[in-house]
Amino acid sequence: MDILACPIDKNHPLELHEIKEKDSVVYEGAIFCSKCSRFYPIIEEIPIMLPDELRDKKLEMEFLNKYKEKLPEKIITKANPWHL
Asked: Rounded distance, CA 63 to CA 13, Å?
């Protein structure tokens, strides 16, 4: 997290929202940029930090639906490039 910046606006630092940990590593979670309000899911330990045009909307909507009770409202209802 110390070296990650938002790929869209280069904002640093980013917020980390942990959902599941496995062996002291974030297994599921989300990274949030407070400047552009983009979220990036962490799925099976891998942060998916792609530009909007390369993102998989179906996968990320499933992620949001699955964790809507565990993620902050700003990610669930207001995040870019999509939200619930």
From this structure: 23
